[in-house]
Write a structure and sequence with these properties.
With about 70 residues, the protein is mainly alpha-helical. The protein has a domain of about 35 residues. The longest helix is centred in the middle third of the chain and has 14 residues.
Length: about 70
């Protein structure tokens, strides 16, 4: 293997599958919920949307269910 590679002449290429990886969704969240995730995301140094996505993915992977009973 070479000791030195010259990457200066390489042309970068965007991932052609990036649009298939995530789906844009519009959600209405309580201000306090958004503030909570923004605060936590700032501590972790990641975007809050990613943090919300990670949390929801964890719920889906572990098949977590919210047990609620709506008032009629």
């Amino acid at each position: 293997m070479r000791e030195h590679y010259d990457f200066s002449k390489m042309k970068g290429q965007k991932n052609p599958y990036v649009k298939q990886l995530k789906q844009p969704v519009t959600m209405r969240l309580d201000k306090s919920t958004v503030t909570y995730f923004k605060s936590m995301a700032q501590d972790l140094d990641i975007p809050y949307q990613n943090l919300i996505n990670l949390y929801l993915r964890d719920c889906a992977v572990h098949n977590k269910k919210l047990h609620l009973k709506w008032a009629q």
